[in-house]
Amino acid sequence: MAVTLRALAEAGGRARSIELEIRALAARAAADGAGYGDIGRALGITRQDARKRLPGMIRSTTRIVDPGVQVQANKLTSDDVKAR
Fold it and tell me: Taking CA atoms, which of 48, 53, 58, 71 is between 20 and 30 Å from 5?
């Protein structure tokens, strides 16, 4: 049993190290403009799960395009403006 518990402790240490690497890479991706959907796809999880796993990683910013209409600033395209 002691050997199994030692192996479990070592695996836990590796898991913590990998989680720190994931968080650092996700932060870099977010800084480069990736959203939770992009990060989730890279991790093989849903956007919602990525948001739960990495809360606060991406700051949602909005701006007014037309009075009373808000859109995601980093998702705005020329087609969005023409459609309004």
Answer: 53
Answer yes or no: is 76 within a domain. Answer: no
Q: What is the pLDDT of residues 31-59, one digit of tens each?
A: 999 999 999 999 999 999 999 999 998 87
CA dist 60 and 52 (Å) reads 15
State which amino acid sits at residue 44: G
Q: Which residues contact 47 (CB under 8 A, 6 or more apart)?
A: 35, 36, 37, 40
Band (pLDDT 50/70/90 cuts) for residue 28 is very high
Q: Where in the sequence is the domain holding 42, given as residue range(s)?
A: 2-59
Which residue type, as a one-letter code, is found at position 61? Answer: T
Number of domains in the chain: 1
